[in-house]
Amino acid sequence: MITTAAEPYPFRFELGRTALLCIDFQRDFVEPGGFGESLGNDVSRLQVAIEPTRRVLDAFREHGAMVIHTREGHRPDLSDLYPAKRDRGNPSLRIGDDGPMGRLLVRGSAGHEIVPELAPVEGEVVLDKPGKDAFYATDLEAILRASGVTHLVVTGVTTEVCVQTTVRAANDRGFECLVLSDCTGSYFPEFHQSALAMFAAQGGIVGWVGTSADLLDAIAASDETRKA
Ligand code: C5J
């Protein structure tokens, strides 16, 4: 059992029953020329989450722990795209339109891919989802239950949209979630802070919030104890 510092109180987990969730670290959200920027967002605000997430990813890989990557996007024929999502805000560029990285938020486009720093490796689950909630219209729950996963370490973008929606959905399904504050990011710093505060409020009503440094220290300390 590993114990790491977190809000509202320490988070305890076994690596063998924990999955690292990397939510939507796609070029479409994080790089210029993608879907995120087409909505008028400053994508550099999300890029700060990449390097700390890479360190956590390395640790999970070194320990043979489960890693799941999600990608938000739609089928090329857009048959899984509701008009409500396509038309919301009457944007000048819509999902499926051509952008500098190919068709926005469409599976198979360059922009739909995960950023190279966090690219999945052989054996890791890559889950395509049409919505914000990674459990909606996917087999995520079946994958987690079949692997005996009870705890999730959550990273990704954006904090108050796909991360928050997914963590709430995971919490309702009985998964214990630790959200890493420096491994998540938002185009709106105030929404990032608020979403994190909401997770941990009221005794952890949605989950726990910690940092990558504390988590990596806790994993390293547990390695030391095991060796001694
Ligand atoms: C958004 C996401 N923000 N991955 N998607 O549209 O948070």
CATH superfamily: Isochorismatase-like
Largest sheet: 6 strands, parallel
Indicate the percent of residues in helices.
Answer: 25-40%
CATH architecture: 3-Layer(aba) Sandwich
Report on the structure:
- The protein has helices at 27-30, 35-38, 44-47, 50-62, 83-87, 140-146, 159-172, 189-204, 212-227; strands at residues 2-4, 11-13, 18-23, 66-72, 98-99, 102-103, 125-129, 151-157, 176-185, 208-210.
- Helix 4 (50-62) runs parallel beside helix 9 (212-227) and helix 7 runs parallel beside helix 8.
- It has nine helices and ten strands.
- It has one domain: Rossmann fold.
- The strands form three sheets. A six-stranded parallel beta sheet has the order 7-4-3-8-9-10, sandwiched between helices.
- The model has no long low-confidence stretch (mean pLDDT 97).
- With 228 residues, the protein is an alpha/beta fold.
- 41% of the residues are buried.
- 36% of the residues lie in helices and 21% in strands.
- Helix 7 (159-172) links the parallel strand 8 and strand 9.
- Dicarbonimidic diamide is lined by residues 24, 29, 72, 132, 157-158, 161-162.
